[in-house]
Amino acid sequence: MSSRTTLIVGLVGLVAVIGLTFVLDPYRNYQLATIAAYLCVVAGLTMLTGVNGQLSLGHAALAACGAYCYAFTANGLAEQEVTGPVLLILPILAAVVGAAVLGLVVGLAAARLHGPYLAGVTLALVIALPAITSRFSDVFNGDQGLYISVERRPEFLAGRGGTEMFQAWVAIACAALVVILLRNLMKGNFGRQMRAVRDNEVAAAIAGVNVARTKVIAFTVSSAAAGVGGAVLAFMTQSANPGAFSLVFSLFLLMAAVIGGIGTLYGALWGSILLVVLPDAIGSLTKSLSLSPEVAQRLDGNLAVGLFGAIMVLVVIVAPLGIQGLLRKGRLKMQSRGTPQSVPVPK
Question: Euclidean distance between the first and final Cα of the chain, in Å?
Answer without folding.
Answer: 39
